Amino acid sequence: MFRLALCGKNYELLEKIESHIQSFVETYKNETKCISIEQYKQLASLRDDMVDGIHFDILMVEIDAHPHEDFRLLSEIRKTATDTIVILFSKFLDYDFTRLGYQVGAFRYLSTHNLFSDLSEAICTALEISAKKQKRYYTFSHYSEIIRIPLDDVLYVKRVNRITMIKAKNGNFHLQLPLKEIYKEINDSRFLFIDRSCFVNIDHVTCFADAEVKLDNQESLPISHSNFTAIRSVLLYKTPNEIQQPVR
């Protein structure tokens, strides 16, 4: 699922934009055809939500006749949402939007005068970029929050009793989801099962032996006998300086 925030003061225009996007997404060629759109009348409210941790893949923001405050708020958003795609639209064309937009990493500038003729292409490209970015994260819901963990930061995922724990650089996350379901959703060749209850990110493996792998956070995890040969063959493709095999 993609999440899009639509921000502007013209309610009727926002409704038309949302309807246009939803109609387009229904015929979108990408396999992910679901998009959640939330409307905001005030950019400050959107800023507050995103600073509080609410994530959006795409922002569509209307810029009014006094753009500097809008861009100040967008700059604050950008500090906490470095990967979010920003699309700006406005009926005022006499401002240096390119210079100000560059500072907030704007992806597209759309004129409201021909908005609907250009919107589909902008959304299509934004969705394609977002799909690639989503593959670099594991995303899940926790109550009312959307949590995104960079796959690079995941050390391992382990089943503990009836809870699945994701061990990441910034802490532990506990989910009531089957281990195999999370593995399938991650869908990244860097992750390998070392036994039935645990799979690891081999980018964080620094040492391996018959009984265990050692990670770069100094943790050691047991390897099942049945998985050792397959794990060893994969790890040996990594640079020898990255993976050390203990001297016997």
TrEMBL record:
The protein's UniProt keywords, in alphabetical order, are: DNA-binding
Q: Which SMART domains match?
A: LytTR
Q: Which Gene3D superfamilies match?
A: 3.40.50.2300, LytTr DNA-binding domain
Superkingdom assignment: Bacteria
Q: What Pfam family is a match, any one?
A: LytTR
Query: Is Transit peptide included in the keywords of this UniProt record?
Result: no
> From the UniProt record, which GO molecular function terms apply?
DNA binding; phosphorelay response regulator activity
Tell me which residues make up the HTH LytTR-type domain.
138-237
What PANTHER family does the record point to? STAGE 0 SPORULATION PROTEIN A HOMOLOG, TRANSCRIPTIONAL REGULATOR-RELATED
> Can you name this protein?
LytTR family transcriptional regulator DNA-binding domain-containing protein
